[in-house]
């Protein structure tokens, strides 16, 4: 059997599949629960690569993919072909393409720093030519194209797989993940953006949050004042599980399926159900201890409400900014496409109710993991790879850089006030109108949902699904310092260890990256410097 691997490198994790190149049959699926780079969002990853070396970041990426391939049960000499899809930052780091043009917003800034735009065209490479992939002597690497340098292969996958280009309606497509890539089509012109919503939509930076994986809560509903939990089983199917008292966690109706956390879709469901029931009145939780108790001691706190709100607000602000750029009202959008793991498992009606889907759309279409699907397509067909290159060149696209866009900034400031300070919705509408932004109407109808897939990865393969718990490798350096171990004590994720010889080891996938850096600040003699880190070989 000739073997290939299709990989989606996401900001919050990796999804990969072993594929029989002769039959096209998927044999096995492996997912990770973190990205191998320090940090939980794209800005952390950018900061790490820019400030501490893209070679370091590249090494972590390559080591992670090698771990995934090993977990798929493929020996180095057996791999014939590898196809990778993802956002432009993750793909560039993996390929070793400079990312300065992605790290800085504004043409003047780039000109001042003499930053040149990099080509991110479709490519077929020998794995032996990519540092770290020399272990696959017989394999080639296929990479899909970006539309423009900042509109990546993942956005192209979203546009292609949704059928977006064929629709005659005004439509919006959104990948409900950490970066929240989105595209709006109006009269054949596509407007794109990336809202950097943060990892809450994928279950991270939530107290008991986890990525979509077996045995996590993916949905909830109130039943006569109690909270019904829905949990993903080992094959990622949604199972009706325990009914609990949300004020205490006491089990009202038992079920054998255990939960070990809550994923992003569950977070959205909790916020929606809580707001409908009046248990959540932004930004507060109206229970005696200000906590919503789910099953198996999984809890949802007020800070989780705010964290989720910031992510949902970024999405809605992004939709507003694209509408502003296109010169339309939000109410003009007729169709909404949802992709990604969160976009698959999320209850579309609930997402619509909390504003993650424009309120006045007629139809919501859930389409699964488009990035992994495109990786599989080009793995099996070189012709398809070059077709995608042609499509990318033909797409007429206007990219809205939300980091510098006044409409996004104005809208997001109001969203922050709404979600974290309890600003009334009518006041939000009033301020948006005053600022000349598209108006958000309240949900006035029940939306039609076309759920085309039941799982974000529809086919897992005969060997099933495995979760790679440790995707990161160790970053190491030698230090000479007092044995205070303050760096270890302050690390919130227990990512750091130091041996008797003063060798520091940081588990990269647990490290919170630039969002934290407590280890650096805690070191009295300033011995703890990330610039001295190296990737441990695997």
Structure report:
The protein is built from 16 helices and 26 strands. α1 packs across α2, α2 packs across α3 and α13 runs antiparallel to α14. The chain folds into four domains: 160 residues, Domain of unknown function (DUF4445) (Nucleotidyltransferase, domain 5, 2-Layer Sandwich); 165 residues, Nucleotidyltransferase, domain 5 (2-Layer Sandwich); 98 residues, no CATH class; 62 residues, Alpha-Beta Plaits (2-Layer Sandwich), CATH 3.30.70. The two termini are 27 Å apart. A hairpin with a 5-residue loop joins β11 and β12. Strands 5-6-4-1-2-3-22 form a seven-stranded mixed β-sheet, sandwiched between helices. A seven-stranded mixed β-sheet has the order 20-9-8-7-18-19-21, with helices on both faces. With 538 residues, the protein is of the alpha/beta class.
Please specify the SSE layout and strand pairing.
Blueprint (H helix, E strand, L loop, with lengths): L2 E7 L4 E7 L5 E7 L9 H11 L1 H18 L7 E8 L1 H8 L4 H4 L3 H6 L10 E4 L13 E4 L9 H9 L9 E5 L5 E6 L2 E6 L22 E7 L2 E7 L5 E7 L6 E3 L10 H14 L2 E2 L2 E2 L5 E3 L5 E3 H25 L8 E5 H6 L2 H6 L9 E6 L1 H11 L1 H13 L2 E3 L6 H16 L3 H10 L13 E4 L13 E4 L5 E5 L7 H5 L5 E3 L4 E5 L10 H5 L11 E2 L3
Helix pairs in contact: 1-2, 2-3, 6-11, 8-13, 11-12, 13-14
């Amino acid at each position: 059997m000739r073997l290939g691997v299709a990989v989606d490198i996401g900001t919050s994790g990796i999804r990969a599949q072993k594929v029989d190149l002769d039959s096209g049959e998927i044999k096995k699926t492996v997912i990770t629960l973190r990205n191998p780079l320090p940090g939980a969002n794209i800005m952390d990853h950018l900061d790490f690569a820019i400030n501490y070396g893209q070679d370091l970041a590249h090494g972590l990426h390559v080591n992670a993919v090698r771990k995934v391939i090993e977990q798929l049960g493929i020996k180095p000499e057996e791999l014939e072909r590898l196809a990778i899809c993802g956002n432009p930052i993750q793909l560039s780091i993996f390929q070793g393409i400079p990312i300065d043009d992605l790290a800085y917003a504004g043409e003047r800034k780039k000109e001042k720093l003499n930053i040149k735009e990099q080509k991110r065209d479709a490519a077929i490479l020998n794995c032996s030519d990519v540092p770290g992939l020399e272990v696959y002597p017989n394999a080639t690497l296929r990479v899909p194209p970006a539309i423009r340098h900042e509109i990546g292969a993942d956005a192209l996958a979203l546009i292609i797989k949704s059928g977006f280009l064929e629709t005659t309606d005004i439509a919006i497509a959104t990948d409900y993940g950490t970066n929240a890539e989105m595209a709006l089509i109006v009269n054949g012109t596509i407007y794109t953006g990336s809202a950097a919503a943060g990892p809450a939509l994928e279950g991270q930076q939530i107290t008991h949050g986890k990525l979509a994986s077996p045995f996590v809560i993916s949905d909830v509903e109130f039943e006569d004042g109690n909270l019904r939990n829905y949990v993903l089983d080992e094959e990622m199917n949604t199972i009706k599980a325990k009914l609990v008292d949300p004020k205490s966690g006491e089990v009202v109706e038992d079920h054998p399926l255990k939960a070990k956390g809550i994923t992003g879709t569950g977070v959205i469901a909790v916020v929606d159900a809580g707001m409908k029931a009046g248990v959540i009145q932004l930004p507060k939780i109206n229970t005696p201890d200000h906590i919503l108790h789910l099953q198996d001691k999984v809890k949802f706190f007020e800070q989780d409400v705010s964290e989720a709100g910031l992510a949902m607000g970024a999405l809605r602000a992004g939709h507003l900014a694209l509408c502003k750029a296109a010169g339309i009202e939000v109410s003009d959008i007729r169709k909404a496409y949802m992709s990604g793991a969160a976009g698959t498992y999320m209850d579309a009606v609930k997402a619509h109710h909390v504003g993650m889907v424009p309120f006045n759309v007629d139809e919501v279409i859930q389409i699964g993991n488009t990035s992994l699907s495109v990786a599989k397509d080009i793995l099996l067909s070189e012709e398809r790879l070059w077709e995608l290159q042609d499509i990318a060149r033909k797409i007429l696209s206007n990219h809205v850089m939300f980091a510098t866009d006044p409409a996004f900034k104005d809208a997001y400031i109001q969203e922050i006030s709404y979600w974290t300070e309890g600003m009334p919705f009518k006041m939000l509408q009033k301020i948006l109108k005053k600022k000349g932004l598209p108006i958000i109407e309240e949900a006035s109808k029940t939306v039609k949902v076309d759920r085309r897939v039941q799982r974000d990865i529809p086919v897992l393969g005969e060997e099933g699904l495995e979760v790679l718990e440790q995707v990161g490798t160790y970053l190491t350096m030698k230090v000479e310092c007092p044995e205070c171990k303050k760096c270890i004590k302050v690390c919130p994720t227990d990512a750091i260890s130091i041996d008797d010889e003063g060798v520091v080891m940081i588990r990269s996938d647990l490290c919170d990256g630039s969002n934290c850096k407590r280890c650096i600040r805690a070191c009295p003699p300033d011995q703890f410097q990330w610039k001295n880190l190296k990737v441990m070989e695997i």
